[in-house]
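New here. Invent one.

***
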Amino acid sequence: METDQSFTARQSLDTIAEMILQAKGHILQNSFYFLLWGWVVAIAHLGVFALLQAGYAKPYQMWLITLPAALVSFYYGYRSNRQRGHTTILGQIMLWLWVSFCITLLCLIFFGADINYQLNPLILLLSAIPTLVSGVAMRFRPLVVGGILFWIGGIACFLASFEFQNLIAAGAVIGGYLIPGHLLKSKQAADHVQGT
């Protein structure tokens, strides 16, 4: 009788370990999002900085480039989920972590006038949370470091003028999303080659 119970416990642990590895594999496939949003947000911040330097009256219009990026992101996610089929509980947690981040981000943008549009420090501080948690979940140190860079960038933005907040934010996005995204893509390629 004890043998059956220990076998069942061992099977349960194996099943949990397999689910975690499967979820980690699904998350590792998401370098696309870090690269897409890394490039879009870095370009937007650098564009706003350049437009401010040029004296353009509405530099915030640079952020309109996020609209097609959001459509591409939603389409990619929809297509990936259909191809993948089911998701694990860890995959669902990560999905809802990022969805919660996006909803909070949209609320900040919508009510930006109430905080005099000083969004850069807050957005960077918030970006640290899902980035760092994703890095921990994947056991991928560059994303953990990326999350820490977002915290440092957020603090630095509180100390900088609005104009230079965009340069700080661009640097944080490059270190927090782009570099880890490219490293993640390289890891995916290496894992794919080893698996074949």
